[in-house]
Design goal:
Blueprint: H1 5-37, H2 47-57, H3 66-84, H4 95-106, H5 109-121, H6 124-155, H7 160-170, H8 176-179, H9 181-195, H10 206-209, H11 220-244, H12 251-269, H13 277-284, H14 287-300
Helix pairs in contact: 1-3, 1-11, 1-12, 2-11, 3-5, 3-11, 5-6, 6-9, 6-13, 6-14, 9-11, 9-12, 9-14, 11-12
Amino acid sequence: MHIGLGELLIELTLMPLVAFIVGMLMVLMMRRVGARLQRRVGPPFFQPLYDIIKLHSKETQISHGLIHDIGIIMAVGGYIAAETLLPVPGMNGIAEKGGLITLLYVMMIPSLGLALGVGQCANPNGSIGISRALTAMLAYDIPFVIVMAGVAFIYGTTNLVEVINIQQEGGIAAWGAVQMPFMALAGLFALQGMLGKQPFEVYVAPAEIATGPMVEMGGKYLGGLFVMQCFQLYTASVLYVTLFLGGGENWLFLLLKAFAVLLIPISIAFLFPRFKTDDLVRLMWKWPVLLGLIGLVLINYR
């Protein structure tokens, strides 16, 4: 459906704003789930917002130069751009023009921006952390690309709006999780790696490299990374819902599905220890890739 320029601009403004607000709620859920599993008292409802305001209100004494600033802007801006390519109830943004392949490329920008910014700091812990982050991206991107190929093949399109419409018109039987369960499992592996949560938290590793990329971050820079995390949680969970759970018929169903999906990697993160980098790559290139390839074979024989 064609919309006017004014409506499009409103959508392009609202989509990142909604993603940020929902992302803060997801951060809150992550903290509270962790507190419950570890028998602690969780944070108050507005704690994520308090943290962002506090960090951005602090005066930053040290600057690592223009490249460092650009890197943080890329880290946040990449996800903001991704929201405009991720259709949600009532707002398609530019998803009909971009598609799944464009979204994949845009979602790589935050990691590359983080690498650019952290590299400017010349801190060895940060450099080690970002090298691990880029290795992790290479590890989970391969099963993720296989999953995308399966989705495009079975629905005959890379347009996410059409993928959602096909699933919703066909009902639960047309959902990606039903049509290609092996792909859905591979997608969960990729989701865990994409979020960088344990056991795949190799690039933070506080006990080894003092939180890695965040070691030189403070004030507004750390606040920017906090904002990036909000977008990251929202983007990854909503994308999974879009590909495998029929998207959202309305905002209530979309959020229920997205929070339910996010609960899986969050729960795993607080229950399992962190893997080493080579273990991460070995696992990602073994089980999710194997599941994805089995899924592709089964799709071809449908």
